[in-house]
Design a protein that fits this description.
With 686 residues, this protein is mainly beta. It is 6% helix and 55% strand.
Length: 686
């Protein structure tokens, strides 16, 4: 792996930057202290500047402090535990968010509004090339606003927001953050550095991170081949004027991680498998205000990413598979001034993907091309002084080309499919007073099948599966209704949501009960294959329904701050209309905690209980429940003479050292998640 010396470099640069920041500002008056916990106010889920309570569907928001206080190994691991969200948990370096039981091609992962999935949607063992340490804020978006991003966000969009393309000039010439963490469960460490600088009309940004962990401990001993080794960096800059800004950035992401309980042969017998992935990404972004003199805003953005990963045998060093993915995306969004009672945005989106694989990966998926062009709209209008109507629409033209397998004759053939998904969503936001907001949403969303769902046709050693696509799959349609009630002000705040979704032609991975070796002819019952579990993409009607709830009560004034309580609950049930259950659906979860917070100190102790899951699909096994007991303590050191803010944190995870198996993971019967973990963190801002 490159950048082996990045950890040392980060430490050195951090120290120099901190010294420079302190020296430059030593004579300035110290700013007023701010609480350690801070609530996000404005979200990008809407093209208009909105707070979460002004949207029809709830938007989950994690701010920078919550990110640094979380499990930052992967994006999925970070969001796991948020109401309605879990992680695929396939490997320590490959955890993708699952929203309300929906994964892969129904959850769009993006960076500043542009897709950045690498090959993570293709398979659970593929990591997402976005590291949480680069994020200023993370939003989980559902409802009418999500149609701005595509039908691949039928289950929601996870938007990672950073300042790699600056949108404003820093108040001080140089600002930054240096962060470090050590963890006991995996003898791990991570470091990150973020720098922002500006003068006159130029703003620049740089960030870098490094993370290394060994095989982690479980209550049953070491979990073999769970190590990670990741590094990355980014540079960006913008020209900022009264009319808006225009900027660009370049980033690099490298990660190597083991696949637990995975075996491949790469031509030389069995051995543990690891993945070595890299991505280089180029982005441009601009926002032009009032160019036409109408009070409008024009947003133009685009991105290109070059992704590649090797799946190799650790014992022999042989590369069994190589996956390559080139993605290009461009977005145009016109936020128009008020037209009568309406305000909102219309836009266009263009997406181009070239996916290829070689070695055993070439047997799974031959080169495939996906082209999409879409028009979208998001509008809102007040119906009364308390009720706002929001609606969105999208129409796409999608073409998917690849090589399919005719299972009747065991022959391959070139195939091309065209789809025109049409989607619409409407919602009402009702301000009830005293901070209460009622949201209702109705949606009809169509999704075109992905290339892998259509054209997969062979072995995937890292997941130990033999995957069969169906080139005759049709569009998937989701008809959904959701009602939410929220309170955002006062001592007692909460968010709750009740949802129901009827899927027509739901596409899912179905365990067939057959086994295979390396080719279709080996698959049972005709063949005698035994190494790989056969998985077929199938299409049936399905029904999802569930509920989510999270609350916080600032109960008492104690000492210099507030003593409070929080709690959460989520539940999703997913059934096939023809009978049986949708596979890999998360169990009921509930939790509660007690916390103390003032301007310098934050502490919390809480638990999260996951019940056993016995609503099973065919060939699934039951998963036992578990309880996570977690604790956090963070202290902001008083440094009144400078702009430097120094936070020292102590974190405990799974303090009961419980056996944790995640039902949504393909590896849950073989792989335990980490046991008791104690972490020490240090974050400096200047």
């Amino acid at each position: 792996m490159p950048f082996r010396s990045l950890s040392f470099m980060l430490g050195t640069v951090s120290a120099l930057a901190l010294q420079a920041g302190v020296a430059a500002q030593a004579q300035e008056a110290a700013p007023a202290p701010t609480p350690i916990k801070a609530d996000a106010i404005v979200v990008t889920a809407s093209p208009l500047a909105k707070t979460p309570e002004e949207l029809a569907s709830p938007v989950e928001v994690l701010d920078r402090d919550e990110i640094l206080n979380g499990n930052t190994a992967t994006l999925g691991e970070l969001l796991d535990g948020e109401p309605g969200i879990t992680s695929s948990s396939f490997a320590r370096g490959a955890g993708r968010p699952i929203i309300r039981g929906l994964d892969n091609f129904r959850v769009r992962v993006q960076e500043n509004g542009l897709a950045n999935q690498g090959a993570s949607a293709l398979s659970e063992d593929h990591g997402t090339p976005i590291d949480p340490l680069s994020a200023e804020k993370i939003e989980v978006i559902r409802g009418p606003a999500v149609l701005r991003y595509g039908s691949q966000a039928i289950g929601g969009a996870v938007n990672v927001i950073n300042n790699r393309i600056p949108t404003s000039i820093p108040e001080n010439t140089v600002t930054g953050e240096a962060h470090g963490k050590i963890s006991s469960v995996d003898d791990g460490h991570e470091e990150s550095l973020i720098l922002d600088a500006g003068a006159e009309n130029i703003a620049i940004h740089a960030d870098a991170f490094n993370r290394r962990t060994e095989d982690y401990d479980t209550p049953q001993g070491k979990q073999d081949n769970t190590y990670t080794d990741s590094q990355g960096y980014a540079f960006g800059g913008s020209v900022i004027e009264d009319w808006g800004y225009i900027g660009a950035s370049v980033s690099r992401y490298d990660s190597e991680y083991g696949i637990p309980a995975g075996h491949g042969h790469a031509g030389h017998g069995h051995g543990d498998i690891a993945i070595d992935m890299t991505q280089t990404r180029y982005n441009v972004d601009s926002e032009l205000d009032n160019i036409l003199g109408l009070g409008e805003t024009l947003r133009l953005s685009g991105g290109y990413s070059d992704y590649e990963h090797d799946e190799f045998d650790l014992e022999h060093g042989d590369i069994g598979s190589t996956f390559k993915n080139e993605e290009k995306e461009a977005r145009f969004e016109f936020v128009h001034p008020e037209i009568g009672p309406f305000e909102g945005a219309i836009g266009m989106q263009w997406y181009d993907q070239d996916l290829s694989a070689s070695g055993e990966g070439g047997e799974l998926i031959a080169p495939a091309e996906t082209r999409q062009m879409a028009l979208f709209i998001f509008e809102e209008t007040p119906l009364t002084d308390r009720v706002t109507l929001q609606f969105g629409g999208r129409i796409e033209d999608a073409e998917v080309k690849g090589t399919a397998l005719d299972t009747a004759t065991d022959t391959e053939f070139a195939a091309s499919r065209d789809f025109t998904p049409v989607s619409g969503s409407i919602g009402l936001v009702t301000a009830l007073g005293d901070g209460f907001t009622l949201g209702t949403t109705l949606q009809a969303v169509e999704r075109a099948p992905d290339a892998l769902e259509l054209f997969s046709k062979g072995p995937h050693e890292a997941t130990e599966t033999f995957e069969l696509g169906d080139p005759n799959l049709g569009k998937e349609t989701a008809y959904s209704a959701e009602i939410s009630l929220r309170r955002s002000t006062g001592a007692f705040t909460f968010e709750s949501a009740l949802f129901y979704t009827q899927y027509k032609d739901f596409i899912y991975k179905r365990l067939t009960g057959e086994t295979c070796d390396d080719d279709f002819a080996s698959c049972t019952p005709v063949g005698a294959g035994s190494e790989l579990t056969q998985v077929a993409y199938s299409q049936d009607d399905a029904t999802f329904h569930g509920v989510e709830f999270a609350a916080e009560w600032d109960a008492f004034s104690v000492w210099n701050g507030t003593l409070g309580f929080d709690g959460q609950f989520d539940y999703v049930r997913a059934e096939l209309d023809q009978g049986g259950n949708v596979p890999r659906i998360p169990p009921i979860r509930f939790g509660a905690g007690v916390f103390y917070e003032d301007e310098a100190l934050f502490g919390r102790v809480g638990f999260l209980r996951a019940s056993e899951q016995d609503d099973l699909a065919t060939f699934e096994t039951e998963t036992a429940g578990y309880t996570l007991l977690n604790a956090d303590l963070k202290y902001r050191l008083p440094l009144a003479a400078s702009r430097l803010a120094l936070d020292l944190g102590l974190e405990g995870r799974n303090l009961l050292d419980d056996d944790v198996r995640n039902h949504v993971s393909f590896k849950k019967d073989e792989v335990l998640l980490p046991g008791r973990d104690v972490r020490l963190t240090l974050t400096a801002r200047f």
